[in-house]
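Design a sequence for this backbone.
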């Protein structure tokens, strides 16, 4: 369950981000405001906001394992709870189970 108030992110924006990306952020006070922000293209994590821009050049037939950023984006989309201590393998398992 998400705690409020919280911050949402969108890319591109005015703030420099990782790997040549940029982002904006804003606060949301409750679940209704969060739902509206997500509908407007905002994301619940900076990774989720900037990774689609950063990996846009990856070909779709790429057989490589997903990167940590890609795993985090998918986990956020599925509403999974994880943190920096969650291994890539565990995060991948959680995603597979949720799908």
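Sequence:
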């Amino acid at each position: 369950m998400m705690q409020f108030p919280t911050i949402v992110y969108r890319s591109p924006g005015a703030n420099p981000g990782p790997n040549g990306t940029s982002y904006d952020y804003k606060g949301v006070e409750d679940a209704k405001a969060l739902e509206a922000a997500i509908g407007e293209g905002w994301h619940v994590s900076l990774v989720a906001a900037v990774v689609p821009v950063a990996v846009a050049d990856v070909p779709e037939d790429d057989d490589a394992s997903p990167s940590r950023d890609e795993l985090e984006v998918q986990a956020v989309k599925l509403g999974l709870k994880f943190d920096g201590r969650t291994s890539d393998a565990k995060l991948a398992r959680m995603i597979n189970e949720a799908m």
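The chain has four helices and two strands.
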